[in-house]
Amino acid sequence: MNGSLMELWAVMGPFAKGIVLLLLAMSVLSVAVACERLIALREAARAAERHVPEWRAVLTSGLDADARREAYDRTVRSTILATGASLQKGHGIIAAVGSTAPFVGLVGTVLGIVNAFQELAEHGGGGIGQVSAGIAEALVTTALGIGVAIPAVWLFNLLTQRTGRFLVELECRAQDLAVATLTETR
Protein backbone atom coordinates (compact mmCIF):
# COMPACT_ATOMS: atom_id res chain seq x y z
CA MET A 1 0.00 0.00 0.00
CA ASN A 2 1.58 3.27 -1.10
CA GLY A 3 -1.02 5.53 0.48
CA SER A 4 -3.54 6.50 -2.18
CA LEU A 5 -7.03 7.21 -0.93
CA MET A 6 -8.52 4.66 -3.31
CA GLU A 7 -6.25 1.92 -1.96
CA LEU A 8 -7.09 2.92 1.58
CA TRP A 9 -10.81 2.87 0.75
CA ALA A 10 -10.39 -0.62 -0.73
CA VAL A 11 -8.85 -2.03 2.45
CA MET A 12 -11.20 -0.31 4.88
CA GLY A 13 -13.75 -2.43 6.61
CA PRO A 14 -17.46 -1.85 6.03
CA PHE A 15 -17.93 -0.10 9.38
CA ALA A 16 -15.05 2.32 8.72
CA LYS A 17 -16.49 3.04 5.27
CA GLY A 18 -19.81 3.76 6.94
CA ILE A 19 -18.08 6.17 9.35
CA VAL A 20 -16.41 7.97 6.43
CA LEU A 21 -19.68 8.23 4.53
CA LEU A 22 -21.48 9.46 7.64
CA LEU A 23 -18.84 12.14 8.20
CA LEU A 24 -19.04 13.23 4.58
CA ALA A 25 -22.84 13.46 4.85
CA MET A 26 -22.50 15.49 8.06
CA SER A 27 -20.11 17.85 6.32
CA VAL A 28 -22.36 18.35 3.31
CA LEU A 29 -25.36 18.89 5.60
CA SER A 30 -23.63 21.51 7.74
CA VAL A 31 -22.32 23.43 4.72
CA ALA A 32 -25.72 23.28 2.97
CA VAL A 33 -27.56 24.52 6.07
CA ALA A 34 -24.99 27.27 6.61
CA CYS A 35 -25.30 28.46 3.00
CA GLU A 36 -29.10 28.47 3.25
CA ARG A 37 -28.95 30.40 6.54
CA LEU A 38 -26.54 32.98 5.11
CA ILE A 39 -28.97 33.52 2.23
CA ALA A 40 -31.87 33.81 4.70
CA LEU A 41 -29.92 36.35 6.72
CA ARG A 42 -29.20 38.41 3.62
CA GLU A 43 -32.88 38.28 2.63
CA ALA A 44 -33.94 39.29 6.15
CA ALA A 45 -31.63 42.30 5.98
CA ARG A 46 -33.15 43.31 2.65
CA ALA A 47 -36.67 42.85 4.00
CA ALA A 48 -36.04 44.78 7.21
CA GLU A 49 -37.48 47.92 5.64
CA ARG A 50 -40.91 46.30 5.41
CA HIS A 51 -41.29 46.61 9.18
CA VAL A 52 -40.93 50.39 9.17
CA PRO A 53 -44.47 51.23 7.94
CA GLU A 54 -46.00 48.89 10.52
CA TRP A 55 -43.89 50.40 13.29
CA ARG A 56 -44.63 53.96 12.12
CA ALA A 57 -48.38 53.23 12.11
CA VAL A 58 -48.22 52.21 15.76
CA LEU A 59 -46.26 55.34 16.64
CA THR A 60 -48.69 57.66 14.87
CA SER A 61 -51.87 55.96 16.05
CA GLY A 62 -54.47 57.95 17.93
CA LEU A 63 -53.58 56.34 21.25
CA ASP A 64 -52.21 58.38 24.13
CA ALA A 65 -48.40 58.54 24.47
CA ASP A 66 -48.07 55.76 27.04
CA ALA A 67 -50.35 53.40 25.12
CA ARG A 68 -48.47 54.15 21.89
CA ARG A 69 -45.13 53.48 23.54
CA GLU A 70 -46.41 50.19 25.01
CA ALA A 71 -47.94 49.07 21.69
CA TYR A 72 -44.76 50.05 19.85
CA ASP A 73 -42.50 48.18 22.26
CA ARG A 74 -44.65 45.06 21.96
CA THR A 75 -44.77 45.28 18.17
CA VAL A 76 -41.00 45.77 17.84
CA ARG A 77 -40.24 43.07 20.40
CA SER A 78 -42.48 40.51 18.67
CA THR A 79 -40.92 41.37 15.29
CA ILE A 80 -37.40 40.98 16.63
CA LEU A 81 -38.20 37.75 18.48
CA ALA A 82 -39.91 36.22 15.44
CA THR A 83 -37.09 37.31 13.15
CA GLY A 84 -34.49 35.93 15.55
CA ALA A 85 -36.25 32.59 15.86
CA SER A 86 -36.57 32.35 12.11
CA LEU A 87 -32.92 33.18 11.50
CA GLN A 88 -31.69 30.71 14.10
CA LYS A 89 -33.34 27.72 12.45
CA GLY A 90 -30.70 25.24 11.44
CA HIS A 91 -28.06 26.55 13.84
CA GLY A 92 -28.58 23.47 16.01
CA ILE A 93 -27.78 21.17 13.10
CA ILE A 94 -24.50 22.94 12.44
CA ALA A 95 -23.66 22.95 16.16
CA ALA A 96 -24.44 19.24 16.41
CA VAL A 97 -22.15 18.45 13.48
CA GLY A 98 -19.37 20.58 14.97
CA SER A 99 -19.62 18.96 18.36
CA THR A 100 -20.18 15.33 17.34
CA ALA A 101 -18.01 14.89 14.23
CA PRO A 102 -14.78 14.38 16.23
CA PHE A 103 -16.48 11.67 18.25
CA VAL A 104 -17.81 9.96 15.14
CA GLY A 105 -14.24 10.06 13.81
CA LEU A 106 -13.05 8.65 17.13
CA VAL A 107 -15.37 5.66 16.73
CA GLY A 108 -13.67 5.02 13.39
CA THR A 109 -10.29 5.42 15.08
CA VAL A 110 -11.08 2.84 17.73
CA LEU A 111 -12.41 0.39 15.16
CA GLY A 112 -9.34 0.89 12.96
CA ILE A 113 -7.05 0.11 15.88
CA VAL A 114 -9.17 -2.91 16.82
CA ASN A 115 -8.93 -4.13 13.20
CA ALA A 116 -5.16 -3.63 13.29
CA PHE A 117 -4.83 -5.73 16.43
CA GLN A 118 -7.15 -8.39 15.01
CA GLU A 119 -4.93 -8.63 11.92
CA LEU A 120 -1.91 -8.93 14.16
CA ALA A 121 -3.57 -11.67 16.24
CA GLU A 122 -4.77 -13.63 13.20
CA HIS A 123 -1.40 -13.72 11.53
CA GLY A 124 0.66 -13.98 14.72
CA GLY A 125 3.52 -11.56 15.15
CA GLY A 126 4.11 -9.73 11.91
CA GLY A 127 5.45 -6.28 11.42
CA ILE A 128 4.12 -2.88 10.74
CA GLY A 129 3.00 -3.93 7.27
CA GLN A 130 0.57 -6.31 8.91
CA VAL A 131 -1.24 -3.56 10.79
CA SER A 132 -0.66 -0.55 8.57
CA ALA A 133 -4.09 -0.66 6.89
CA GLY A 134 -5.90 -0.65 10.23
CA ILE A 135 -3.77 2.17 11.56
CA ALA A 136 -4.21 4.18 8.37
CA GLU A 137 -7.97 3.61 8.59
CA ALA A 138 -7.89 4.87 12.17
CA LEU A 139 -5.92 7.98 11.31
CA VAL A 140 -8.09 8.84 8.31
CA THR A 141 -11.31 8.68 10.31
CA THR A 142 -9.74 10.79 13.06
CA ALA A 143 -8.57 13.43 10.60
CA LEU A 144 -11.87 13.41 8.75
CA GLY A 145 -13.84 13.83 11.99
CA ILE A 146 -11.75 16.85 12.93
CA GLY A 147 -11.87 18.13 9.35
CA VAL A 148 -15.68 18.05 9.42
CA ALA A 149 -15.94 19.63 12.87
CA ILE A 150 -13.69 22.65 12.31
CA PRO A 151 -15.67 24.23 9.44
CA ALA A 152 -18.97 23.42 11.17
CA VAL A 153 -17.89 25.20 14.35
CA TRP A 154 -16.57 28.13 12.31
CA LEU A 155 -19.83 28.37 10.35
CA PHE A 156 -21.91 28.15 13.54
CA ASN A 157 -19.94 31.00 15.12
CA LEU A 158 -20.17 33.08 11.94
CA LEU A 159 -23.93 32.63 11.69
CA THR A 160 -24.49 33.27 15.39
CA GLN A 161 -22.49 36.51 15.26
CA ARG A 162 -24.12 37.77 12.07
CA THR A 163 -27.61 36.93 13.32
CA GLY A 164 -26.97 38.67 16.63
CA ARG A 165 -25.54 41.71 14.89
CA PHE A 166 -28.52 41.90 12.53
CA LEU A 167 -31.01 41.71 15.41
CA VAL A 168 -29.19 44.49 17.26
CA GLU A 169 -29.22 46.61 14.10
CA LEU A 170 -32.95 45.93 13.69
CA GLU A 171 -33.62 46.97 17.27
CA CYS A 172 -31.50 50.13 16.86
CA ARG A 173 -33.43 50.96 13.70
CA ALA A 174 -36.69 50.61 15.64
CA GLN A 175 -35.41 52.85 18.42
CA ASP A 176 -34.21 55.48 15.93
CA LEU A 177 -37.63 55.43 14.27
CA ALA A 178 -39.37 55.82 17.61
CA VAL A 179 -37.23 58.77 18.62
CA ALA A 180 -37.62 60.46 15.23
CA THR A 181 -41.37 59.87 15.01
CA LEU A 182 -42.18 60.82 18.59
CA THR A 183 -40.08 63.96 18.23
CA GLU A 184 -42.02 64.88 15.07
CA THR A 185 -45.43 64.38 16.70
CA ARG A 186 -44.74 66.73 19.61
Extract low-pLDDT stretches: none
Shape: rod-shaped
- H/E order of the elements? HHHHHH
Query: Strand fraction band?
Result: under 5%
Distance between the termini: 83 Å
Q: What's the total helix number?
A: 6
Question: What's the count of strands?
Answer: 0
Structural class by secondary-structure content:
mainly alpha
- What Rg, in angstroms, do the CA atoms define? 27 Å
Largest sheet: none
**Helicity range:** over 70%
List the helices and strands and how they pair.
Elements: H1 5-11, H2 14-47, H3 51-59, H4 65-87, H5 91-123, H6 128-184
Describe this entry's structure for a reader.
It is a single chain. By secondary structure, this protein is an all-alpha fold. The chain has helices at 5-11, 14-47, 51-59, 65-87, 91-123, 128-184. The mean pLDDT is 89.
Structure described in brief:
With 186 residues, this protein is mainly α. Helices cover 88% and strands 0% of the residues. The protein has one domain.
Task: Provide tags for this entry.
mainly alpha; 186 residues; single chain
